[in-house]
Amino acid sequence: PMLMGSDKGKAPVVLMEPPAKKQKLSCGGCSQGASWMKLNMGQHIPVRVLYPASMLARLSNNLQALPAEDRIGLLADSYALCKAGSLDPMQLVSLLQGFRGESNDKVWSELNSVLGGLDKIVRQGLSAETSSAFIDFVAKLVMPAF
């Protein structure tokens, strides 16, 4: 079962067809006039969701409207898809910017994992200038929480 929702409400439960790498889903009108749409609401099933850039940007701009488990899931999915080469790294960076001011400790645990993984990549394979820019980016992300 796939649960979907938006700022306009929840969609009827949709049963996914196994094995489905890609599947069109109907949200029963919950996307009409919505500023964001989230698939796998509540993170009830073990599936990664790759959003189009426009949907990911809308979610990033409305993160605080999502429950903590959905913020965690969105972040975990985006990081995993980025590592797999399915998501543009700049989209992950844009999503991370939406977490400024995050106050939930469980979301911060996931942020810590993602930022730690990115830090390893930056330090091992990128220039000192990029590393410095990453440190500045993380500082701006973390400071509002403290």
From TrEMBL:
Signal peptide: none annotated. Residues 36-146 form the ERAP1-like C-terminal domain. Gene3D superfamilies: 1.25.50.20. InterPro entries: ERAP1-like_C_dom. This is ERAP1-like C-terminal domain-containing protein. It comes from Alexandrium andersonii.
